[in-house]
Design a protein that fits this description.
Radius of gyration: 26 Å
Helix content: over 70%
Largest sheet: none
Order of helices and strands: HHHH
Strand content: under 5%
Structural class: mainly alpha
Number of strands: 0
Distance between the termini: 102 Å
Shape: elongated
Length: about 130
């Protein structure tokens, strides 16, 4: 009888340990997913910014007006822009799964627009004065 009780206790402890490790594993996987998504979003941001910086540095931009440069930047770097948008959308969805996807898309679009606005602002502030 005592052996049966010890066996039952061992089975219960093993089951409890398995249940607690099963509960931890998805959380750890979610944490890894979030970290991976964050890393990809940051890489996408950096790639997009580097591409915009190359656009900013082109000699052909010297005589452009602010509006012309803004239109040029808006059409520049399409693959980097899309990668950044998608990676940021994925990160936001991973971090905030209960928020509607449309809100995440709007946030990602605002981030892209902010990057474009920042590069245009830098262009205007650093261009030589017109004669």
């Amino acid at each position: 009888m005592r052996m049966l009780t010890v066996g039952a206790a061992l089975v219960m402890m093993t089951s409890a340990a398995m249940m607690s490790s099963a509960m931890i594993t998805p959380a750890m996987a979610d944490d890894d997913d979030a970290k991976g998504a964050q890393k990809l979003a940051m890489q996408g941001r950096d790639d997009y910014w580097h591409c915009l910086a190359r656009e900013y540095s082109r000699d052909s931009n010297q005589g452009m007006s602010e509006q012309d440069f803004g239109r040029s930047v808006a059409g520049a770097c399409p693959s980097e822009r899309q990668y950044y948008r998608v990676a940021l959308l994925d990160y936001l969805t991973t971090q905030y799964p209960t928020i509607e996807g449309g809100a995440h898309l709007a946030t990602a679009n605002r981030a892209v627009e902010a990057a474009q606005k920042d590069i245009v602002t830098a262009f205007v502030k650093h261009r030589p004065p017109q004669k």
